Amino acid sequence: MLRQLLLVALGGAIGSALRYLTALLLARHYTGSIPLATLAVNLVGCFLIGLLIGLCSDTSHLRLLFITGFCGGFTTFSTFTAESYSMFREGAYGLALLYIAGSVLIGLLALWLGLSLSRLLAS
């Protein structure tokens, strides 16, 4: 169990650091209104998780290091899309659409609630 945890932690640390570096690099060269760093990380993460699921399907340690750790640290959006895709592939279309819409809409609501609470606590 400790080895698995360390693999996830190592991959997550590398993924998080790379996400931060990507944001710094893009901020130097892009000043538009679209959050390009987040978009780029999410799209690259989706590509990588698809590639890694295909390449690491038989090796649990590689899955922990690269899929759970690295992709999880780099972007959780890649995991969200992989889970959504799995639901579609299994024929659970309604559940997939509910999961996607619910994640986005309830996520926005949760963000708003957290911000509202922080304002209450700050005043």
How does this structure look, described?
With 123 residues, the chain is an all-alpha fold. It is built from five helices and no strands.
Structure described in brief:
The chain is an all-alpha fold. The protein is 86% helix and 0% strand.
Strand content: under 5%
| Main sheet specs | none
Number of contiguous helices = 5
Secondary structure class reads mainly alpha
Q: Are there runs of 5+ residues with pLDDT below 50, and where?
A: none
- Percent helix: over 70%
Mean pLDDT: 92
Overall, the morphology is: globular
What is the tally of beta strands? 0
Function: Fluoride-specific ion channel. Important for reducing fluoride concentration in the cell, thus reducing its toxicity.
Catalytic activity: fluoride(in) = fluoride(out)
GO biological process, one term: cellular detoxification of fluoride
Subcellular location: Cell membrane
State the main characteristics.
123 residues; mainly alpha; 0% strand; transport; transmembrane helix
List the helices and strands and how they pair.
Elements: H1 2-29, H2 36-55, H3 60-74, H4 77-89, H5 93-122
Helix pairs in contact: 1-2, 1-3, 2-3, 2-4, 4-5
Protein name: Fluoride-specific ion channel FluC
Main location: membrane
Binding site for Na(+): 72, 75
